[in-house]
Amino acid sequence: MSPEHAGHGLAVGPLLLVPPLLLWSYLAAALRERATDRAGWSHWRTASFGAGAAAAAVALALPGHGLAAHMWQHLLLGMLAPLGLVLGAPATLALRIADRRTGRAVVRLLRRPAVGALTHPVTGLALTVGGLYVLYLTPLYRATLTNPVLHHLVLLHFLLGGYLFTWAIAGPDPGPRRPRVPVRLVVLGVAVAGHATLAQLLYAGLLVDVTAPAVELRAAATVMYYGGDLAELLLALALLVTWRPEPRRARQPDEPPPGTAALPASAG
Predict the structure, then answer these.
(1) Angstrom distance (rounded) from CA 154 to CA 159
(2) I want to staple 195 with a disulfide (CB 3.0 to 4.6 A). Which of 15, 135, 151, 228 is the partner?
(3) Where do the H-state alpha helices sit in 98-147?
(4) Structure pTM?
(5) pLDDT tens track for 148-203
(6) What spatial distance separates the first Cα and last Cα of the chain, rounded to whole Å?
(7) DSSP category for residue 211
């Protein structure tokens, strides 16, 4: 391991508390929902959220020595953990235990254009895949090796950006402004291509601002390439499983068929 990469052993400190706090809050909400609703909350949703929290905890607890270990952190914290957390539908659970006034306020907030732009899949794509290009093609990555605060912020960015992207693509939680499935599939395809391209650049040591032996670059690139493909395949499956076709509105007798113009009224 190169001396520069000794910085990967930086402790994540308070970030280790995030996964158990998230899981405790979720379980408390699920138990409250079960106490007020005979049907209770889905065990599958709870298990999914728990798996996501566990993946995040494992990522934060990794020693992090070397570029390949850092890439495993990215895979777990930025892709696999968000998938489990999102499929747990935490926003739906929160809305079910909230009072009506709070629920209506949240729904109004979700319908605002600014929130729609923030939660658009393209925004998530820019934060996740675009963030990786910024990390590895600029001095940012090397700076995280010696700056604990910056290191923590990058890890937090992995988790939050990954959650936003995963929710925008396949989240079961309400999203009034979420694009249609074809748009989300195109964005996911761009993410796959972006990950693959960056992995190839790392493997060849081209354009990346990472000082590491060739064998270490290739190991990290392999994790990104194959691990990223697996995570994005799971995300695509989640999209298909959670997709629900929009109900078609019944056409009125005097309404023209879709794609045709109404006939003008007779002049005589």
Answers:
(1) 9
(2) 228
(3) 100-110, 113-118, 121-137, 140-144
(4) 0.84
(5) 889 889 999 999 999 999 999 998 887 767 888 899 999 999 999 999 999 999 99
(6) 90
(7) -
